[in-house]
Design goal:
heterodimer; A: 15 helices; about 75% helix; B: mainly alpha; MetI-like fold; 2 domains; 15 helices
Chain lengths: ~300, ~300
Amino acid sequence: MAKNANTPKTMESNHRVASFLSTALFVLVSAIIAFPLLAGLTASFRPAREIFQNGMSLNLKVKDWSLHNYAYLFTKFINPKTTDSVAIADSNKYFMWYKNSLILTITTVVLTLLVCYFIAYGMTMYKTKLGNFLFFMVIATMSVPFEILMLPLYQEVTTIGLINTNAGVFLPGLCAASTIFFFRQYMQGLPKELLDAARVDGCTEYGISVKIMMPITKPAFASMAILCAMGSWNNMLWPMLVFRDTNKFTLQIGLNTLLTPYGNNYDLLIAGSMFGIIPILIIYLIFNRYLVAGMTSGAVKG
Amino acid sequence: MSKAKKLLYSQKIAPFVFSLPFCLSLLIFWLYPLVTGILMSFQTVDFGVTQWVGLQHYTKLAKDPFFRTAVLNSVEYMILTLLLLVPIPMLLAVLIESRITKARGVWKIIMYIPALTSVVISGMLFRLMFSEGAGGQMNQIMQWLGQAPIPWLKSKGTGWVALLLLCMWRWTGVNMLYFVSGLNSIDGTLYESADIDGANAKQKFWYITLPLLKPTTVYVITISVFAGLSMFLESFMLWNGNSSPKNIGLTIVGYLYKRGIETNELGYACAVGVVLMVIALIINFVQLFATGTIGFKKKED
């Protein structure tokens, strides 16, 4: 059906019908895709006990809506004079996890981008055999699933003493193959004459990489920043191994611990989940156009 | 400038300085764990005492019914996601990039949003949507259709409906965007000349779009193979832990996690990892060979 709708028969009315059908299809697909998130959002206004027992109902029961879950999430944190000590501990923890995630994400993004930029610069801007070999290794690392390295890496990180630290989480992924790959693709399209001009002007090799090339590479930084931020904010498997201490947990691991079979934390869980999407959603809506450029670089050139 | 400093700043040495972090990272965080992982699969580690056991773990794996379930589940999941997440996003991309669709930017933005959610959040949402009680949304829909409520996550067929829908929900928009960028790289004049030659939409799709979209398709298939084979967290979240009823959600990585982390049998878990790597490499090699990405012809670029 989809393909028939694409048939641009030259007749005006046919075109209009096709246009209507195609647009309608995307309205439908978008509605289906938006549904789980909207359901989660509406559920976050409803009594948690009921959500746990009955699931998220199609009947929105707007009459029962309240900001109770969010109030619980925020006020217990802001006003710690409440008598419910468990609630204080939980809610305090939520924002602690939030803060941990923010710090970890910002550190990861800044360091990963800088490191990957310089690596890609070295590979692309000089014609050396080493560069070609290292690029081959970039591809090689991309074709080994991380999960295989996970256990030995876990042992290694424990031995080095990086367990339970942010460094233990971000160091192994600092030289991200996909990020190096993207920077390389981007820099290959830049004129190398700039380098020679700068050299004539007495700029050092390292000065060129920072003062000349980095400003031109800004769009690449933007697209990699958002992909890297998304990956780091939502990362779960590896941080789950590295962080042992509940005070060190990232938001995702913390939310996971709230998901108990007893359902006693669903108020925090559902409001906290919805609130946990916000940072990444904001970044996405602002940098949306860079994102598309970033994620598609590998796909087009192959 | 001193001689050493001059050398450090020379064009000969600079590329090595730039590459140093990658070389270090490659050795410490890739090659070392990879080699130890493979070595550990031939060892048993008990309270720090390492013992060589040869192929024992592998012969045990061959007879391990849980491992067989895990491999079958992972391969099945991979095949199903390939069937769902390659053709559908491709057709949606063709459709959204044809001029007939209105407000294309809006749909692209909405369809990508699920990829922003973490597995924890999306897993929780789908758990709640597919909850057993009559009050969950899916069961309410079943009720409208005149069916009795279904304990969705309790059996494989219905549990996998939830699992695959979760996967489609998160990745359809992402894969569509890959195809959209692939489509944008196709030279538009090809379609114009096809129009002059009187080709219809179907012919244009088969003889222009599909062949020229091949690099993108190969890329999407490659990442889907890896993602499908190493799927773990989706099932971990949907079934609230690593123990699903009758192991319907057990995957290779889930089994690796169970043995390596939960029961602390590192050697055995590493053997699971090595098998996963071999399966992934074989499938990808066959796939790249079949699509002609690698082969005997001279490589371009």
